[in-house]
Amino acid sequence: MSIKEIQIPAFLKRTFNGRNVAISIPYLWLLLLFLFPFVIVLKISLAQPVIAMPPYTPLFSWGDSLWPKIQAGLDSYLFLFSDSLYIKAYLSSIKIATISTVLTLIIGYAIAYSIARAPTRWRGILLMLVILPFWTSFLIRVYAWIGILKTEGLLNLALMTLGVIEKPLIIMNTDLAVYIGIVYSYLPFMILPLYANLEKMDMNLLEAAADLGCRPFKTFWTVTIPLSLPGILAGCFLVFIPVIGEFVIPDLLGGTKTLMIGKVLWGEFFYNRDWPVASAVAIIMLLLLIVPIILYQKSQEKAIS
Amino acid sequence: MTRFSKFNVSAIIIGFTFLYLPIILLILFSFNESRLVTVWAGFSTKWYVELMQNQGIKDAAWVTFKVAFISSSVATFLGTIAGLVMTRFGKFRGRTLFSGMIYAPMVMPEVILGLSTLLTFITLAIDRGVLTVTLAHITFSMCYVSVIIQSRMSSYDDSINEAALDLGCTPFRTFLLITFPIILPAVVSGWLLSFTMSLDDLVIASFTSGPGSTTLPMKIYSMVRLGVTPEINAVSTILVGLVTAGVITASLIGKRQRQQLAQS
After folding, report:
1. Average predicted confidence (pLDDT) for chain B
2. d(CA A262, CA A264)
3. Which of A115, A230, A294, A300 lies in the 20 to 30 Å Cα band around B97?
4. Yes or no, beta carbons of B102 and A30 under 8 Å apart
């Protein structure tokens, strides 16, 4: 009997048609390795830490009774809210992310706006020059700043040689170094959506404003900025959301006083080995970010369709 | 009104100096004779020679390359399907969730992705190693590939597919013979992006790797924590050089294809 003769039931044919198989392959992958992990994190955040492998208690235990004993507790969360370190770290992350998003927006806007105004034949190459550093390693780009910013680093050397300052500036291991690192690393994420928006802008509108006697500065505020709002929003989300959980930049450029929640999570996991608390930190961070993430997703879907 | 003003020129010059000066200085000091990164003591390639003798770095580079190659290939496959599903499959049950799962990993802080993926591997009793890092990299890379494919498909001319279908071509053959060759440049750039992102990743790899699967960024990170040395500058220079060459090649290929397309 050849394979062709085997009768495939109709409902199986309907379920396993090409379309459904194509949908289910990436769908199942993301369910298993992106969504399901959050359920696990939530579960472990409700467990107790123990010195074992894995270092947390199981949520259900059978013991003697017929019904499983549920051992879930909010201990880790209560701990987060009782120790001011965690709340301070969340607030400090929001502050650092907000300030650096604004700084990145101002600098990124100036660059994106200027590229969009450049002669057409230059735009491609200028845009590629913005993207190129984005492809090179994040870690390497952050590392490059250590040699520049440290007390005996290149910036202080240059400024002292030029006679601008007499004593070296202390920038390394301060919040300022973190801001510089964030703006530098995330600038391409801001420039790209802004440029995509500014490049499409209808120049006739700007000319109309000028013809009607609007001054260039006022035209910029009342016409250009409102029209580029979708680009501004996309860029700000792309910077703000990941910066909240940033680890590498505050760890390498920031000091001991630089509090950021990503660094706290890393410490809880790798140094304290307190998995339930690390999971609770992640869950609270996620709750903080869920609204910006949904807004970002909606804006992206609209932009593509 | 639309002229290129002095402000524009200076914004571009200052902006690009800011973007490139740190990388240029990093490359420059990899050729420094002195161990001190700030004092120029003459040209030397001795840090590269030293690098070649560092077995730890060579092992880490090999692990990183393996992970990047496999993860970017699988991610391109999955991401291309996901991108097509999002743009050409119309409505289906769970589409909103699917779209959420594609966009969220791109902005989700890496510490959360790393922690959650690791805890999943431990729950499923999968040993940490090259496999777990690769699986984690596939998951976030496929989302980027999918978005690249989606934006390519948004300017895709549907009538050519309809023509093929009208002439009796099956949907799958239409995809292989018509759609795939047309979107190939987007597929290739998706692969390249996945490859470099896997090459770059420190945080997710630190969570999901086990003994014997230390990647190059993890190795560099542990060296950086001990201080700035010209050896790190040398390994960074090699990576920057490789990535730059790759990106320029890819963009030249893309340009040539666009020109061919414009001629035909």
Report:
1. 89
2. 5
3. A230
4. yes
A154 touches B at CB < 8 Å: yes
Structure tokens at B252: 């030249």
Handedness of CA A126, B26, A174, A81 (dihedral sign): positive
Report how far residue B76's alpha carbon sits from residue B192's, in angstroms, rounded to the nearest whole number: 9
Q: Could you tell me the CATH superfamily of domain B50-227? A: MetI-like (1.10.3720.10)
Helix, strand and coil in chain A, % to nearest 5: 75, 0, 25
Q: Model-level pTM? A: 0.88
- From the number of C-beta atoms within 10 Å of its C-beta (0-12, 13-18, 19+), residue B16 rates as middle
Write down the ipTM of this complex: 0.89
Q: Do B19 and A304 touch (CB under 8 A)?
A: no
Closest residue of chain B to A187, computed from CA coordinates: B19
Contact predicate B86/A30, CB 8 Å: no
In B, which residues are within 8 Å of A242 by CB distance? 107-110
Q: Give residue-wise pLDDT tens across range A243-291.
A: 999 999 999 999 888 899 999 999 999 998 888 999 999 999 999 998 8
Residue of B nearest to A136 (CA): B240
Write the pLDDT tens digit of every residue in B85-95: 999 888 888 89
Residue in chain A lying closest to B125 (CA): A54
Tell if the CB–CB gap between B196 and A135 is shorter than 8 Å.
yes
Inspect the interface and report whether the beta carbons of B78 and A29 lie closer than 8 Å: yes
Exposed e or buried b per residue across A78-100, where buried means at least 16 C-beta atoms within 10 angstroms of its C-beta: eebeeeeebeebbebbbebbebb
User: Where do the domains of chain A lie, and which CATH numbers do they carry?
Assistant: 75-304 (1.10.3720.10)
Cα–Cα distance measured from residue A152 to residue A117, given in angstroms and rounded to the nearest whole number: 40
Cβ contact A169:A150 at 8 Å:
no
Provide the residue ranges of all domains of chain B, joining segments of one domain with +. 50-227
